[in-house]
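Support reply, case 0932

Customer input (verbatim):
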Amino acid sequence: MSGIEISVQAQPEDAASWAALARRVEDAGFGALLVADHPGVTASPFVALAAAAGVTSRIGLGTYVSQAGVREPLLLASDVATLDVVSGGRARLGIGAGHTPVEWAMLGAARERASRVGADPADLLAVPYVWIGTEEEILAELAAHRERWGITRYVVRDAAVDAVAPLLARLAAGGRTPRGGGDSRVG
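Our regenerated output:
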């Protein structure tokens, strides 16, 4: 089960708590700090991520997800490239068509329906957004999900950082308990 990465999605509320969260995410061993991109609705993800780059040195920094349907492509590319420079190559880009109606309305445009991608809605709902149980149960669920879908990266909200952090060493060790580690309840 090695190769599974857990990242954290959050939004900045103020500079001090944002910097503290970025350091906490990195210190706990998460793979990345990700910010939603809802132009005109939330803070700019690229400004927030550049601030996080200044207080971290290892974690990936990226969007979850950038709304390509409502963003100017050259500006989006420039923002990602700049983040990559100021972060020392740690930029990540999650990209989507844009699903929030208010974003399309701000542009005076209508969102076209995305075509079906071949996944059954019940299968999509099987993604373990909420992990409840012992570490063993959670690790078994992640392994089953990886086997079925090939998914190796997961994102948790910032409120789950402390609860999920104990699993990171186990995931890096392929699901085995690293030396000196024990089992604790998560959820």
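We compared this against your earlier run and they match. Two observations from our side: Residues 38 and 122 are 27 Å apart (CA to CA). Helices lie at 15-28, 45-53, 73-86, 101-107, 121-124, 135-149, 161-172. Please reopen the case if you see a mismatch on your end.
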